[in-house]
Design goal:
Structural class: alpha+beta
Number of helices: 7
Number of strands: 13
CATH topology: CNF1/YfiH-like putative cysteine hydrolases
Strand order of the largest sheet: 4-5-8-7-9-12
Order of helices and strands: EEHEEEEEEHHHEHEEHEHE
Distance between the termini: 18 Å
Strand content: 25-35%
CATH superfamily: CNF1/YfiH-like putative cysteine hydrolases
Shape: globular
Largest sheet: 6 strands, mixed
CATH class: Alpha Beta
CATH architecture: 4-Layer Sandwich
Helix content: 10-25%
């Protein structure tokens, strides 16, 4: 488990600590990758124990759709952004190369869990998450972009995430800092850097970043590296202060 460093309980899981067998060993949290459903259920229960609350795991579609969760353990609609302002509700964004992002708004206590893949970053998943958090503020609070913090989880780095040149150009046309090059000199995307830049542009007072690459670090799941594999998660709990 990696501490996300936010004012509320928030962390990123790794591969360790679960019951799934190869090639999903061991803390796989995804239900859509072919793992034994009972093993996934046990793994998710273990993460709920870590969180201290039943966790709502998002169902990603690589877009910008937002879903609000109002009850602990609620199964959310398909969306790449989950938000809540209900104390005791825990949210999780699963990933394995895409960027998991956790957000906290001190003005309202609301939190968000975001899955930001290539298409999500290009289409504006970060902006959608911030807009959803701002919608939970009062009109007066919306005038001041203060009190928001975020933590960016492990993801494929810009030295490893090779893509066709036209794909890189499509993302970089909206997020210039996403433009990168692999060690071999081929076109690549640096999605964590693009997310970090965009959060700064949107007025976040604090942005933390786990500088671990999923392709380089065997402690993490990586779809690009392993093909059939599991998923880790970023988890955040509304209303549970740790600072």
């Amino acid at each position: 488990m990696l501490d996300a460093g936010l004012p509320v309980r928030a962390f990123f899981t790794t591969r360790a600590g679960g019951v799934s067998a190869a090639p999903y060993e061991s803390l796989n949290l995804a239900t859509h990758v072919g793992d034994d459903p009972e093993a996934v259920a046990q793994n998710r229960a273990a993460v709920s124990v870590m969180a201290g609350a039943p966790v709502s795991f998002l169902h990603a579609e690589h877009g910008i759709r937002v879903a609000e969760v109002t009850r602990p353990g609620e199964d959310p609609a398909v969306a790449d952004v989950l938000v809540t302002r209900a104390p005791g509700v825990a949210l999780a964004a699963i990933a394995a190369d895409c960027v998991p992002i956790l957000m906290h708004d001190a003005a309202t206590g609301a939190v968000a869990a975001v899955h930001a893949g290539r298409e999500g970053v290009r289409l504006g998943a970060v902006d959608a998450a911030v807009a959803a958090l701002l919608d939970l503020r009062s009109p007066a609070q919306r005038r001041v972009r203060e009190g928001m913090s975020a933590s960016i989880g492990p993801a494929a780095c810009g030295r490893c995430y090779e893509v066709p040149e036209e794909m890189r150009d499509a993302v970089a046309s909206r997020h210039p800092t996403a433009r990168s090059t692999t060690r071999a000199g081929t076109p690549a995307l640096d999605l964590p850097r693009a997310v970090e830049t965009r959060l700064g542009e949107l007025g976040f007072s604090s942005v933390l970043r786990q500088r671990l690459c999923t392709l380089e670090d065997a402690r993490l799941f990586s779809h690009r590296r392993d093909g059939v594999t599991g998923r880790h998660a970023g988890v955040i709990v509304c209303g549970v202060s740790v600072r």
